[in-house]
From TrEMBL:
Origin: domain of life: Bacteria
Key word Membrane present: yes
Membrane topology summary: Multi-pass membrane protein
Localization of this protein: Membrane
Name of the protein: SLC13 family permease
Domain RCK C-terminal: 225-309, 317-401
Pfam families recorded: CitMHS, TrkA_C
PANTHER family given in the database record: BASIC AMINO ACID ANTIPORTER YFCC-RELATED
Length: 610
């Protein structure tokens, strides 16, 4: 086998690839800077040392290196992130998540496990990306309601989908590209289930790693802003005024707890002039009762979304719930020497002056045993307020309160939930049934989410992760340079020459490992197309069937676990899981070796190459 002659451009490309991986893995360097620096170095190298063919035509142009930023795969990912944000902003999946949690409340881990198994099986018969798009918000909602961190489920979700894609001919686009290249070289036609058995073995072993070991290696990197926005474990005091049509009326306390208020602590019930204090035994809620409860911000936000009439403002008025008005919840501290100090909210006229409602109050100094509408405020009290974004942000200039801007979060627009679900379903259906290319479906979905007011432009822009954008552009530029310089082919030929004379199963194992490593630097599709002809050539030289070497390309190219840019689903879960580049390396690299060892032990035996 003739070796490719290495060039200075090839060696420089190898150096940039290694430098990029080191920079990505070094947490102190932002991914955006590493990506932009990688592209800048590639542009400099091929501008100073152009790579030309025999006719003098440049093989790597500036346009070639920068076209990754307009790649359909990248546009698809960005559009899908925006579409998924529409589901979050409308709370569209809260009800299905609550239902699934109710089914598995005694065994929460089994619910998530069942979801991952379903993802792996479905990924065997349809494109992985729509499957992961469907389950990202579901698993995020499940993890949140079960008290688990989203980081523990997002990467396993992506890996389960990738593993499932190994089982059939249409399991992933990588499979189809490799099989297409194989048949073009004169290979036999590959059937739908021709490699289901070895693919299922690899998927099953890899899945055991995903559910048993991967969660132990993952780190929760939820941002400080998110933690502050959720309120953490801080509890606020809220009051509920029970009207005749309220679902709580008529509920009787059981063991001191009211069935409709399981996630809150009832501090006091004011019935006329009488104050009922815990413990509550044989007490039935009545119309007109004012119920004072303590709960975290997230619990009360969810309760407000489900039953807006249930929560009253601390001023003793119903919470303003104008349909179609986008609202924000934030925290504000009563300032020293504030004119609100020593007054009730009704006396301050806070709502009339600011346009914001006070939902709850937090006071650390002592237990409050009075209705919030009659509570005299003190400097240092934390108010949980709700209003339009304009009105809430206007509190920056208010001398009586100090707005905690980092605590501001949007209230889900529940009234638009069905719109969001319909749009999301249409995106998945048209992409999965191949009615439209997935990039067209995703862009149409993102556009409709904004047109129908499921989310606004600001929320859509926040859904686009600049780390994903820059890292994909850099990865595609590296792939372009590797292919143009012949670096990937040179590595393959060098390894095969070094292993010539070894048993066939050793060469097959080494070939698989090389493909698995390079697919995390190049794109998986480029790796499949590049290495399939090499696999056929090696099999012919060794005088063995080409099928095992084709599977080495398919399964190896699908080992896209060690870097986020190696596969679309990794990029999709990067933002929801708050992952860094090093997280994929730490969790995904062992999985590559697990799959490689399984391939080495099973495939040569299965195809009688031992």
């Amino acid at each position: 086998m003739e070796l490719i002659e290495p060039t200075i451009q090839m060696w420089l490309t190898f150096a940039i690839v290694l430098g990029a991986i080191v920079a990505y893995a070094y947490d102190r360097i932002p991914l955006e800077i590493s990506s932009i620096a990688t592209i800048a170095m590639l542009l400099f190298v091929f501008e100073v040392l152009p790579l030309v063919d025999t006719s003098g035509r440049s093989l790597v142009t500036t346009r070639d290196l920068l076209q990754g930023f307009a790649d359909p795969a990248l546009i698809t990912i960005m559009a899908l992130l925006v579409t998924g944000q529409g589901l979050v902003q409308t709370g569209a999946l809260n009800s299905p998540a609550r239902l699934m949690v109710r089914w598995g409340k005694n065994y929460p881990g089994l619910v998530i496990l069942a979801c991952l198994i379903i993802v792996m099986l479905i990924s065997a018969i349809m494109n992985n990306t729509p499957v992961v798009v469907i389950f990202i918000p579901i698993l995020a909602a499940l993890a949140d309601r079960m008290g688990k961190k989203s980081a523990m489920v997002m990467m396993p979700l992506s890996f389960a989908a990738i593993l499932g894609g190994n089982m059939t001919k249409i399991g992933s686009s990588t499979n189809l590209l490799a099989i297409g290249a194989f048949e073009q070289t004169g290979g036999d036609t590959i059937g739908f289930f021709d490699f289901t058995v070895p693919g299922a073995v690899l998927a099953s072993v890899g899945f055991l790693y995903v559910i048993l070991i991967a969660p132990r290696l993952l780190v929760d990197r939820a941002s400080l802003a998110k933690r502050m926005a959720s309120g953490g474990g801080k509890q606020f005091l809220f009051q509920m005024e029970l009207t005749p049509d309220n679902g709580l009326v008529g509920q009787r306390a059981v063991a001191g707890m009211f069935p409709g208020l399981k996630e809150v602590t009832v501090r006091m019930i004011q019935r006329g002039t009488e104050k009922l204090l815990p413990p509550y035994d044989d007490i039935t809620l009545q119309t007109g009762d004012i119920v004072l409860v303590a709960a975290t911000r997230s619990v009360m936000t969810e309760l407000l979304n489900a039953s807006p009439e249930l929560v009253s403002s601390a001023e003793g008025e119903d919470v303003d719930d104008k349909a179609g008005e986008r609202r924000v919840i934030a925290e504000a501290v009563i300032a020293p020497a504030s004119r609100m100090d020593g007054r009730t909210l009704a006396q301050t006229g806070f709502r009339a002056e600011t346009g914001c409602s006070v939902l709850g109050v937090q006071r650390r100094s002592r237990m409050i045993r009075a209705a919030l509408s009659a509570l005299r405020l003190e400097a240092g009290d934390v108010l949980l307020i709700m209003g339009s974004r304009t009105n809430v942000l206007a509190l920056r200039d208010n001398r009586d309160v100090m707005l905690m801007e980092s605590s501001a979060s949007d209230v889900p627009m529940q009234e638009f939930a069905w719109r969001a679900l319909a749009i999301f379903g249409a995106v998945v259906a048209t992409a999965a049934l191949e009615i439209f290319p997935i990039v067209v479906s995703a862009l149409m979905g993102a556009t409709l989410m904004m047109i129908t007011r499921c989310l606004n432009v600001r929320q859509a822009s926040r859904a686009i992760d600049r780390r994903v954008f820059t890292i994909v552009g850099a990865a595609l530029a590296l792939g372009t340079a590797m292919q143009a310089t012949g670096g990937a082919s040179w590595l393959a030929h060098t390894m095969i020459e070094a292993l010539m004379g070894a048993p066939v199963w050793v060469i097959l194992s080494g070939f698989f490992l090389l493909v698995a490593v390079l697919t995390n630097v190049l794109s998986n599709n480029a790796t499949a197309v590049l290495f399939t002809p090499i696999a056929v050539s090696v099999a012919h030289e060794l005088g063995v069937p080409a099928m095992p070497f084709l599977l080495a390309v398919i399964f190896g190219a699908n080992c896209s676990f060690a870097t986020p840019m190696s596969y679309q689903t990794n990029l999709l879960v990067m933002a929801p899981g708050h992952y860094r580049f090093i997280d994929f390396m730490r969790v995904g690299t062992p999985l590559i070796f697990v799959v490689w060892l399984t391939f080495t032990l099973f495939v040569p035996w299965y195809y009688d190459l031992l």
